[in-house]
Design a protein that fits this description.
The structure is a single chain. By secondary structure, this protein is mostly helical. The protein has one domain (2-45). It is built from two helices and no strands. The radius of gyration is 21 Å and the shape is rod-shaped.
Length: 46
């Protein structure tokens, strides 16, 4: 039982390391696109 718990702990640790080190380029692109749309809406309202 202890080995199973340690295995889950190791797998969880490895998965969080790889998940947190992802490339955030896509997230930045989406944020830029949202800002561009917001600017276009502001311009259209004026």
């Amino acid at each position: 039982m202890k080995k199973l718990g340690k295995l889950f702990l190791i797998l969880f640790t490895i998965s969080t390391v790889f998940t947190s080190c992802r490339d955030t380029k896509e997230a930045d692109d989406v944020g830029d696109a949202v800002e561009d749309v917001a600017d276009d809406v502001e311009d259209a309202v004026d």
